[in-house]
Amino acid sequence: MKDIKEITLYIIFGILTTAVNIAVFFLLYDVVHSGLIIANITAWLLSVSFAYITNRIFVFKVKSGDVLKEMVMFFAARIFSLVIDTGIIYIGIDIMHLDALAVKIFSNIIVIILNYALSKFIIFKAK
Description:
Layout: H1 2-32, H2 36-59, H3 67-95, H4 100-123
Helix pairs in contact: 1-2, 1-4, 2-3, 3-4
């Protein structure tokens, strides 16, 4: 039962994190015209900060531990998923000329699954 609640909370906060990511990305890319990579990296920074806080407090309910080490691991894992995300949107949008929103949503689905596995089994694993 604990795993179902944890997964449900991860999905809820994953959706909110994705919403932050997509909203910032399209605000910068479509409205501000900041460029694809700048929009994506800025969206990533804001959404990862939101994700770390919500994952630590609400999803995995971490009460103690080495916060600095945990944060470094969290951001390192998210850098890895940023590379995956950036590669997918670059190929999908710049090379294949697919719809930017559809590619970004697809990319975020892949990233959410990858990030859950890394968080559950490496970063926030039960001590």
